[in-house]
Amino acid sequence: MSAPAEHQSAGLTGLEVRGVSVVYRNGNRALDGASFSVPKGSITALVGINGSGKSTLFKSLMGFVPLADGQISIMGMSVKEALGRNLVAYVPQSEEIDWSFPVLVEDVVMMGRYGHMNFLRMTRPQDRTAVDQSLERVGMQAYRKRQIGELSGGQKKRVFLARALAQEGQVILLDEPFTGVDVTTENQIIELLKDLRAEGRVMLVSTHNLGSVPEFCDRAVLINRSVLAEGPTSEVFTQRNLQKAFGGVLRHFVLGGEDLHDDDDARQVTVLTDDERPFVIYGEAERKAQMQVGTPKGDSRK
Ligand SMILES: Nc1ncnc2c1ncn2[C@@H]1O[C@H](COP(=O)(O)OP(=O)(O)OP(=O)(O)O)[C@@H](O)[C@H]1O
């Protein structure tokens, strides 16, 4: 385990995942020698097909599953130590939550404070202040007395983000934060994540919204059991890499020639999507000239 002095010298690395393998009890090797790093003050997209190991990676960062091999360091500490210091906050996939459980919005956010309380969980003024400020920050103050199950998909996401803020997590893991969320809420969440990045926090965001990634993620990790590519989004998010990560799952449309131009302009529009917001590339074939964020056909979200 790292000594406190080493935390200071850990410098700019937020997450360091080295050769991590996870084998489930049924023998399924969900991660196989995965390695990547995420600097502090950055937003990293975690992108891959269904079953590629994204949730398993989150579980290993949360200490929920044991590593068969490899090491993880979080802000220069072991997973256990980082969790013990409340540094890691998790915003789960909506499907993982039992929405029929009767609990008020403000109580969900207060759960983020549990790690800061003593074992009797008596709330102190600073806990209530943290809850107020977090709800304010995600624009959900007006809903604090509502049952969580009575909110829309986007509002629920914002409440869980508020819980992560109340926890004062320095590393925020977001599992599919845009699924079931309208474009306005998605933009609000992206703005909040950018503010958190400016504060030096680390965010790892799994998403199928390929088109949004270049918009707000400075880095990307493409995964399929092991890491296929990692680094700055501008270098990683290429047609070749995305096809490697998604194989036949990716829908691929190319518009060019007289479908697009009334002269002999050689540039094409390439649209890559795994059915959420598509990733659009405009330029000559095999040469990435310009990347744009596309608008989905009829905004077809899951
Ligand atoms: N508890 C478990 N026991 C055995 N195998 C599991 C378990 N959980 C997940 N797996 C398997 O491990 C692999 C990775 O699953 P994981 O949930 O990490 O994928 P994912 O990338 O998050 O997928 P999705 O995009 O669908 O959420 C899959 O083959 C899955 O079937």
Automatic annotation (TrEMBL):
<dbReference type="InterPro" id="IPR003593">
    <property type="entry name" value="AAA+_ATPase"/>
</dbReference>
<keyword id="KW-0862">Zinc</keyword>
<keyword id="KW-0864">Zinc transport</keyword>
<keyword id="KW-0067">ATP-binding</keyword>
<protein>
    <submittedName>
        <fullName>ABC-type Mn2+/Zn2+ transport system ATPase subunit</fullName>
    </submittedName>
</protein>
<dbReference type="InterPro" id="IPR017871">
    <property type="entry name" value="ABC_transporter-like_CS"/>
</dbReference>
<dbReference type="GO" id="GO:0005524">
    <property type="term" value="F:ATP binding"/>
</dbReference>
<dbReference type="GO" id="GO:0006829">
    <property type="term" value="P:zinc ion transport"/>
</dbReference>
<dbReference type="Pfam" id="PF00005">
    <property type="entry name" value="ABC_tran"/>
</dbReference>
<dbReference type="GO" id="GO:0016887">
    <property type="term" value="F:ATP hydrolysis activity"/>
</dbReference>
<comment type="similarity">
    <text>Belongs to the ABC transporter superfamily.</text>
</comment>
<keyword id="KW-0547">Nucleotide-binding</keyword>
<dbReference type="InterPro" id="IPR050153">
    <property type="entry name" value="Metal_Ion_Import_ABC"/>
</dbReference>
<keyword id="KW-0813">Transport</keyword>
<keyword id="KW-0406">Ion transport</keyword>
<dbReference type="InterPro" id="IPR027417">
    <property type="entry name" value="P-loop_NTPase"/>
</dbReference>
<feature type="domain" description="ABC transporter">
    <location>
        <begin position="15"/>
        <end position="250"/>
    </location>
</feature>
<dbReference type="InterPro" id="IPR003439">
    <property type="entry name" value="ABC_transporter-like_ATP-bd"/>
</dbReference>
